[in-house]
Write a structure and sequence with these properties.
The chain is mainly alpha-helical. The chain contains 10 helices and 2 strands; from the N terminus they run E-E-H-H-H-H-H-H-H-H-H-H.
């Protein structure tokens, strides 16, 4: 079927002047370095705004109401309110707004579809292959609680009662130079951590997606022992520069 529009005859699916199709949008420079490195949330959300508009299903296909169940992220008391979507939990929920300052580009460093092929012809994307984000970014807040490196005798869930569920029993003086990255509110984290150890544990094992822990940089702190333990010998001493800008 042909559609007549003034002097022009358009085929179905023909783009009007100024419109961009899906393939063209995927190839927009904002999805690639260097433009992605300075992209703002407003730019991202102008096309992807639905990530903040979606809501979880009120009930499962089997008829189980969301209000009658706990999602995995609701099992810690620090989460408030009803179930919410992945992006909203990281950007606009009360806990996210208080403790985090995440941007779209904190996790998303572009989406090069040429690297998402099963066998890319000219790129070795490592862990980012066929993924929208680098899992190492997720691992920073969703890794396993590394009690062995901390010198603890057992996982935190097995001993927190004996420590009054208070991470600051040790961390008031140990590794005190922490959370100084551009996607967190470090001062608010300190206040919230003093209120409840579950705030600390939430990002240090309580919401673990992985069976491994993240090798956090070992920033120096006042009173830091001069000798590095074996587990820290290959650790960087500063965070990734893109998280310090």
């Amino acid at each position: 079927m042909l559609i007549s529009c003034g002097l022009a005859t358009l085929l179905p699916g023909t783009l009007l002047a100024g419109e961009v199709d899906y393939a063209g949008a995927r190839g927009d420079p904002i999805h690639f370095s260097p433009a992605i490195e300075s992209a703002t949330d407003d730019q991202c959300l102008s096309c992807h705004g639905e990530v903040l508009e979606r809501k979880p299903l009120a009930s499962s296909p089997a008829g189980v109401a969301a209000s009658d169940t706990l999602a995995w992220y609701q099992t810690l008391d620090t989460y408030e309110g009803e179930q919410d979507t992945f992006h909203r939990r990281h950007l606009v929920t009360p806990l996210a707004e208080r403790l985090m300052d995440m941007r779209c580009t904190t996790c998303h460093q572009g989406s090069n579809y040429r690297e998402e092929a099963p066998v890319p012809p000219s790129a070795d994307a490592g862990f980012t292959l066929r993924k929208a984000v680098d899992p190492n970014v997720c691992l920073m807040c969703h890794g396993k609680f590394n009690y062995q490196a901390m010198g603890l005798p057992m996982p935190w869930t097995d001993m927190r009662e004996s420590m009054n569920n208070n991470c600051l029993t040790c961390h008031a003086t140990f590794r005190t130079n922490r959370h100084q990255v551009n996607f967190l509110h470090p001062d608010e984290i300190e206040v919230a951590g003093a209120e409840s150890g579950d705030v600390c544990y939430g990002c240090h094992g309580g919401r673990a997606w992985y069976r491994v822990s993240y090798p956090y940089p070992r920033h120096s702190w006042p009173g830091m022992p001069p000798v590095k333990p074996d587990w820290a010998k290959n650790r960087p001493e500063k965070s990734d520069p893109r998280f310090l800008e």
